[in-house]
Design a protein that fits this description.
By secondary structure, the chain is mostly beta strands. Helices cover about 5% and strands about 25% of the residues. Strands 1, 2, 3, 5, 6, 10 and 11 form a seven-stranded antiparallel beta sheet that branches. Strand 2 and strand 3 form a beta hairpin. Pfam families: TLD.
Length: about 190
């Protein structure tokens, strides 16, 4: 958690204590396990590690509720350490093209930033030959989240390109007192973006 804490400056989680609510290795690599753990808990941070060692993630300022909404926000961002060296500052990638589609809150999917920015579908294998399919993640930077400073359009390693297999997937959310209202813990009212 200390890896990404500096990235939360000027966000709603900047000074708030965080707790781990979802760990795919503990809770299961399924959309239902993901949503059971994260829905209606407010803004959150996704943190993942790939087989090739990249550490990647994203900040979702509107949280998840599992209603199939497109949750817009210009405050959303992705981040990565493509080489896995978290002792150096992360590469932070802002939302581009306006607030729309910052996060897609699909109840039949895991975390999804933009239509194709960073997506972990958590799809079940359809046959024995597809073992590990639930750990696949996809990334295409440019349309919804800015490209890396070197021009690369992925948050993964150069070898992984647009698709990576995850070894770890976690979500952290803020800790709220019992008398505090958790922001964005239900459907968003209609809004033009």
């Amino acid at each position: 958690m200390q890896q990404f804490r500096p990235l939360l400056a000027r966000t709603s989680l900047e000074k708030r204590d965080l707790k781990l609510v979802f760990d795919a290795n503990r809770d299961g690599w399924t959309p239902s396990a993901f949503h059971l753990a994260v829905d209606k808990l407010g803004p959150g941070v996704v943190l993942a590690r790939t087989e090739q060692g990249a550490v990647v993630g994203g900040y979702n300022p509107k949280g998840w509720v599992g209603y199939g909404e497109y949750r817009g926000s210009i405050a959303a961002f992705l981040f990565c350490w493509p080489d896995g060296d978290t002792s150096r500052p992360a590469i932070k990638l802002r939302k581009v093209g306006g607030a729309g589609l910052a996060c897609i809150d699909d109840p039949e999917s895991g975390p999804r930033f933009g239509a194709d920015g960073f997506h972990v579908p958590l799809e079940a294998p359809r046959s024995e030959g597809e073992a590990g399919r639930e750990r696949l993640a996809r990334c295409k930077l440019g349309p919804y989240y800015e490209k890396r400073p070197d021009g690369s359009n992925t948050i993964f390693t150069k070898a992984e390109k647009a698709t990576a297999t995850l070894t770890d997937l976690k979500v952290y959310v803020g800790i709220y007192d019992a008398d505090e209202e958790i922001p964005y813990n239900d459907a968003l009212p209609f809004q033009l973006e």
